[in-house]
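Our preliminary data section would be incomplete without showing what the modeling component actually yields. Below, a chain of 68 amino acids is followed by its predicted structure, encoded as tokens that our downstream tools consume directly.
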Amino acid sequence: MFDKKLLKIKMVAKDDTYKALARYLRINEATLYRKMSGRTDFLREEIRHIKERYELTSDEVETIFLSR
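Predicted structure:
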């Protein structure tokens, strides 16, 4: 299950917005909202980009995207 709260904490720490993240991931804002709400999953490539953007550790990536 996706941990939305933890990702939002990382976004706030970097003073980032949904619009900026969607642009960075090269996806539509509506698509990002669906992913953030858990209706659709993040793709591997998107997770890799998020990891780079927010300087996440492998453990953080696992906690955010792969926790149950």
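The chain is about 65% helix and 0% strand. The chain has a mean pLDDT of 95. Preliminary results of this kind motivate Aim 1 of the renewal.
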